[in-house]
Amino acid sequence: MRDGEVWEVPSKAYAVFHAATLVEFHVEDAATASQHLTHLRTCRPFQTALCKSFDPTLLNAAKSLGCRVQDAAFLFRKRVPVEWPRPEGFQIVKAQAHDVDPALRLGGDFFAGLDDVERLFATGDLWIARQNSQMVGCGVTYPLGTQVDAVDIGMVIGKDWRNRGFGVALVGALADLVERQGQRPICGCAKDNLASRATLEKAGFVSEHRLFRLEFPA
Length: 218
Hints:
This protein is α+β, with helices and mostly antiparallel strands. It is built from 6 helices and 11 strands. It is elongated, with a radius of gyration of 19 Å.
C-alpha cells in the first residue's frame, strides 16, 4: 500500500487500515496478538481484514476471536523460467507525460483516478505497452520498500486488445524487467478471476499462497 491509516503501540504493535478494512497487522510478541487485536477493535472498530496465508500471527489471532475465513485472491510470490509469447511489434516503455491521460482512459477502473496515474508517472512506476505505435495496455510497478527486494506488478489491457496474448506479453516483460534489476516480481489476482490467473501462470508465475478475507463477528 502507498497510503493508509496507521495505528501504533510503540515498540509493541501496529496496524494499517485501508478505508474500513484492516490490511496489515504486526506485533513484536506473537503471544500478545489476540490481546492487541481485541484492543484495536475496541479503539478502532472494524469488521473485515485481509490476511496473507503466510501470516499465521494475524490469522490465528483472528480465529481466536471467532472470525470467518474466506479465500479472496491468489498470491504469486514465485516465478519459474518460461518462454512466454512475444507478439511481433510489441514493446513496453516507461510512460511519458503525454501518456498520462490516454493511460487513464485505457485503464478505466484499474486506476483509482487521475491522481493515481500521475503519482505512478512521477515515481517512474507507470509503463506503456505498445503494439507498433498503438497503446494496448498499461503496467505498474510498486516497490515494497528499501528493506524488501520484492516489486508488486500489475497491468491492464485495453478492451479492444484483449484475448490476443498482450496480457501475457506485458506481465512477462514487466517481470523480466524487475528481475534484470535484481529484484523479485510478485503479483496477485482475485480468486474468481480465472483469466488473470491463467495469464500470470503463462508468464511463469506460480501461486503457493492465498489472500484471506476475515469477517469478524459483530
